[in-house]
Specification:
By secondary structure, the chain is α+β, with helices and mostly antiparallel strands. The protein is 55% helix and 19% strand. It folds into 2 domains: 3-109, 2-Layer Sandwich (Beta Polymerase, domain 2), CATH 3.30.460.40; 112-192, no CATH class. Strand 6 and strand 7 form a beta hairpin.
């Protein structure tokens, strides 16, 4: 799908969601475009309730489980994070802001909301052996932390009930490594000035 077609289709889905009064939150790569330059994506990620899917018969659901669904709207892949998952519900309720997307106000995850979702996904991506996706997620986390310097302590507290102790420890170690890389980058950057 070309970039122009992608943008037109995304605008169409946002208009449809608005017309049908569907509660949703934009997350994933397109949401990251509001915070990070140059992030590429070919799909759209939304948090929404399962019941909302009934209001969108134009979205062809290809796969669905307890926490996720995947659908298609025209040629656009839509990955849905379902609010049955307590963390996804919490992000939709408490980590939302409004961003402009091609002349339309869109409910979008905050930096902290995006970090929560990325950190939550990491242990599963490691278990799946999805090295490319791990790299993308870790880079997104690193870039958000470097640019926005959010307080991570409350985010780990937020993740605690949703991850096993082992997974939470792994995420903390990964984020510590990311913060060390950021510190090295800033030191080297300061030395070259």
């Amino acid at each position: 799908m070309s970039t122009d077609t992608l943008l037109q289709t995304v605008v169409q889905i946002f208009k449809l969601l608005d017309e049908r009064q569907v509660e949703y939150l934009l997350v994933g790569g397109i949401a990251l475009l509001n915070y990070i330059e140059g992030r590429n994506t070919q799909d759209i990620d939304l948090i929404m309730a399962v019941a909302s899917l009934e209001k969108l018969p134009e979205v062809n659901i290809i796969d669905q489980n307890e926490d996720f669904a995947r659908g298609e709207f025209n040629e656009l892949q839509i990955d849905l994070l379902l609010t049955r998952n307590p963390l996804f519900d919490r992000v939709q309720r408490d980590y939302a802001t409004t961003q402009q997307f091609i002349e339309q106000a869109i409910p979008c995850a905050t930096v902290e909301g995006l970090l929560l979702l990325k950190m939550y996904a990491l242990p599963s991506l490691y278990r799946q052996g999805s090295f490319a996706r791990v790299g993308i997620y870790e880079n997104d986390i690193a870039t958000l932390i470097q640019l926005y310097q959010p307080d991570l302590k409350p985010l780990f507290a937020e993740l605690s009930p949703h991850l096993s102790a082992t997974d939470l420890k792994s995420v903390r170690e990964i984020v510590d490594e990311i913060q060390q890389r950021i510190a090295r980058f800033q030191q080297q950057s300061d030395q070259t000035e």
